Amino acid sequence: MDSDEWDERYSGAEYQWKMAPNQFVAAQLADLTAGRVLDLAAGEGRNSVWLAARGWQVTAVDFSRVGLEKGRKLAASRGVAGIDWVLADLRDYQPTAGAFELVLIAYLHCDPSLRAEVLGRAASALAPGGTLFIIGHDLANLSAGTGGPQDPAVLYTAEALRAELPDLSVLRAEQVRRTVGDATAIDVLLWGSAG
Could you give the 3-state DSSP secondary structure of residue 142? Predict the structure, then answer.
């Protein structure tokens, strides 16, 4: 999907997902010491707002103007500041190298060549000792889960993520399950650290 399609998807009054952070983001990142965080493909900003409310200085990047505007509204409704909303396509966006204690990529599904570029830039944006946290739909979700993209080329596996991040110390890369109504979605979670 391109930015116009995402603008259309986000154009309704309701939020596409929830206004609360993703459950894995909240569970895994709650105890990290706040610093600078880069949220790539921030969408409607739910994770960015949650992180900023916890004291993080957030750079939230997305190519959907409508999604970012909804993120601004969500932040304002909660009295949350400290978010730099950046309208940019990840094909072109170049984060500052070594600038972030945390880089978050939540449910970014794109063609493998772009994913490799984004992951490489994400890893290089980490400060020494910084954390890269990725959550997305696993390839197994196509046959054993529910929802998510139906193109196998844009889905993740733990093994593929490890291979695409050779210079990162991967501390955790595994399938995780998420309840969606009466069904289960299968995601992949990666937690890595910059040397």
Answer: helix
Q: Is the dihedral of CA 151, 155, 160, 166 positive or negative?
A: positive
Phi, psi of 5 (to 5 degrees): -65, -40
pLDDT value at 79 more than 80: yes
Residue 44 near residue 74 (C-beta atoms within 8 A): yes
Among residues 180, 74, 191, the alpha carbon closest in space to that of 126 is found at 191
Strands (E), the chain: 36-40, 57-62, 83-87, 100-106, 126-137, 169-180, 183-193
Residue 157, both tokens: 């596996």
Query: Exposed, middle or buried by CB within 10 Å (0-12, 13-18, 19+), for 183?
Result: exposed
Q: What is the pLDDT of residues 137-154, one digit of tens each?
A: 999 999 999 999 999 999
Amino acid present at 155: L
Q: How far apart are CA 125 and CA 95, in angstroms?
A: 6
CATH topology assigned to domain 3-138 = Rossmann fold (3.40.50)
The backbone torsions φ and ψ at residue 109, rounded to the nearest 5 degrees and listed phi first, read -125, 110
Verdict on whether the full-model pTM lies above 0.70? yes
The Cα 106–Cα 40 span in angstroms is 8
